[in-house]
């Protein structure tokens, strides 16, 4: 994992990289693609719920539980931290806190997406052997 | 076994991944593959029950807790009622003791907090007395 990813991804991302092999040479990128597809759906659902002004904190918490789960599995540490904050505000029934934190969730998510896109672009250019060497 | 990662030799074990999250499905499937364990994936507890009703059986079931349609607690209870004796390991992000207790009491043999890693999966296999061929 390059220096540019430090702080954004934790050791769980390295676990993913360890699973990449000749059978699935693009495993990490495939999982990242699944993550961004899934998280985009959840962001959309939360956005719509917040825009309606309906603060069903249970429902919001459920969405964020799923989002946090995916983020944890891929090692997205900053996104995970913001998800945790959002859930705390849900538990407190603090609508303003939810709105504010959700902006942070989206910001960290967008930043991570850009960084990973760049990371995978470099990995494709480098080729499989160089990627394996760099990830060690 | 502790601290060792089994080789990629085929283990002859079979497993079922029960999780609604696509990222987790992909990861858990690959983790099991890496240990040479043939595995299927379903999206919720109801599908886990259905696949057993169709006659399939597995040595190990990795059961998520929070799933739509039928959650992990309900599915575990149902499978045990059906007489399924497979080893069931609960895997969840839930960390409160009372939540873990409720899940264990549904009929689990083991429990691990997500995210699953190779070492956590090896720990499950060790705890449940599975020995992957090396």
Automatic annotation (TrEMBL), chain A:
Keywords: Cytokinin signaling pathway, Phosphoprotein, Two-component regulatory system. Functions as a two-component phosphorelay mediators between cytokinin sensor histidine kinases and response regulators (B-type ARRs). Plays an important role in propagating cytokinin signal transduction. GO terms for biological process: cytokinin-activated signaling pathway; phosphorelay signal transduction system. It comes from the Eukaryota. It is found in: Cytoplasm, Cytosol; Nucleus. Gene3D superfamilies: HPT domain. This is Histidine-containing phosphotransfer protein. Its main location: cytoplasm.
UniProtKB/TrEMBL annotation, chain B:
It holds the Pfam family Response_reg. Residues 14-129 form the Response regulatory domain. InterPro entries: CheY-like_superfamily, Sig_transdc_resp-reg_receiver, ST_Response_Regulator. Gene3D superfamilies: 3.40.50.2300. The keyword Phosphoprotein applies. SUPFAM superfamilies: CheY-like (SSF52172). The modification 4-aspartylphosphate is found at residue 64. SMART domains: REC. PROSITE patterns: RESPONSE_REGULATORY. Keywords: Phosphoprotein. PANTHER family: TWO-COMPONENT RESPONSE REGULATOR (PTHR43228), TWO-COMPONENT RESPONSE REGULATOR 24 (PTHR43228:SF12). This is Response regulatory domain-containing protein.
């Amino acid at each position: 994992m390059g220096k540019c990813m430090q702080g954004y991804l934790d050791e769980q991302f390295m676990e993913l990289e360890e699973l990449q092999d000749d059978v699935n040479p693009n495993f990490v990128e495939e999982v990242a693609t699944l993550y961004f597809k899934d998280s985009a759906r959840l962001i959309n659902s939360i956005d719509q719920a917040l825009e309606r002004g309906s603060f069903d904190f249970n429902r919001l918490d459920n969405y964020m539980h799923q989002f946090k789960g995916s983020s944890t599995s891929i090692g997205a540490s900053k996104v995970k931290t913001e998800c945790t904050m959002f859930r705390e505000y849900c538990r407190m029934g603090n609508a303003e806190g939810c709105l504010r934190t959700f902006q942070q969730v989206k910001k960290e998510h967008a930043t991570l997406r850009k960084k990973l896109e760049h990371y995978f672009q470099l990995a494709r250019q480098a080729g499989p052997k160089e990627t394996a060497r760099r990830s060690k | 076994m502790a601290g060792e990662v089994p080789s990629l030799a085929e283990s002859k074990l079979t497993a079922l991944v029960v999780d609604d999250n696509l990222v987790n499905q992909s990861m858990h499937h690959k983790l099991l593959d890496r240990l040479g364990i043939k595995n299927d994936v379903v999206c919720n507890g109801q599908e886990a029950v259905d696949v057993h009703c169709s006659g399939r059986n597995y040595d190990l079931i990795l059961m998520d807790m929070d799933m739509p349609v039928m959650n992990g607690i309900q599915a575990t209870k149902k499978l045990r009622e059906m007489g399924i004796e497979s080893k069931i390991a609960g895997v969840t992000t839930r960390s409160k003791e009372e939540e873990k207790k409720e899940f264990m009491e549904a009929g689990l043999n083991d429990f691990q907090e997500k995210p699953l890693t190779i070492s956590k999966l090896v720990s499950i296999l060790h705890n449940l007395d599975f020995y992957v061929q090396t």
